Amino acid sequence: MERANEIQISYKNNGSANQLKITDASSANNIIMDSWDRNTIELFETFKVVYLNNCNTVKGICTISTGGISGTIVDIRLIFATALKTLSTAIILTHNHPSGVVVPSQADIQLTQKIVKAGELLDIKVLDHIIVTPHGSFYSFANEGRI
């Protein structure tokens, strides 16, 4: 039985002895898409965080929230509680747009800025925020100079 105060962090490594390392937005997107349930990516919006060590090796991926068709509520405290519990030094934010539109909304931009500021206080680097779609396209805040 799972206790209410436990945080579920997981990552499937497909049986490989080598841990996966994030080198760019494309490699991050590949890891993120491997973790997504293909049956729900176009049904409702979900916000996840990829937790990394100093070498940008994936420690795990945690689903922070799941919402409706056009949005989800993100509690920044949960993001950083998990980062602190896992001794992560960097994170990558990600969420899906069920509509298939990769352009970030104003709310996406504001949330990203708020999380980056919180990370600076805790010395946890926000490397990117990647928006994914059911069709495989993605948007990287880092690639666009927004982080």
From TrEMBL:
Signal peptide: none annotated. Residues 21-147 form the MPN domain. Gene3D superfamilies: Cytidine Deaminase, domain 2. One of its GO terms (molecular function) is metal ion binding. GO terms for biological process: proteolysis. It comes from the Bacteria. Keywords: Hydrolase, Metal-binding, Metalloprotease, Protease, Zinc. InterPro entries: MPN, RadC_JAB, UPF0758, UPF0758_CS. This is DNA repair protein. It comes from Maribacter aurantiacus.
